[in-house]
Specification:
Layout lengths: L7 H9 L7 H22 L7 H37 L3 H20 L2
Helix pairs in contact: 2-3
């Protein structure tokens, strides 16, 4: 189940549980999206006194939406990574070492933008 489908209490219980996820990234996404939602609310109620309120509302809504989409994508990538690490742990040591070397090589290329 995705974070957006959980009730707040369920989400907080999952954060407090012993599992690896959800963690800090999920909390950061929730805080960012919440702040954007609050900004949109304030902008909507301030249209009469704030000429830029319409543009601010649109930007806040875009940020809120983008943060939730990115959070879901990051979460899926993290789950896939953890599943891969668990599968690698079951490999024989030589095969695991070869995979680790390949992963480090890919990470180095990624860091260099190659």
């Amino acid at each position: 189940m995705e974070m957006l489908d959980l009730r707040l209490r369920e989400f907080l219980d999952a954060v407090a549980a012993a599992g690896r996820t959800p963690g800090g990234g999920s909390l950061a996404a929730l805080v960012t999206a919440s702040a954007a939602a609050l900004l949109a609310k304030v902008a909507r109620t301030s249209k009469a006194a704030w000429p830029e309120a319409g543009a601010v509302t649109a930007q806040a809504e875009a940020l809120r939406s983008a943060e939730m989409r990115m959070r879901e994508a990051r979460s899926a990538a993290r789950r896939a990574y953890l599943e891969l690490r668990e599968a690698e742990a079951k490999l024989d040591p030589q095969a695991a070492d070869e995979l680790e070397a390949k992963r480090r090589e890919r990470e180095a290329r990624y860091a260099l933008g190659a």
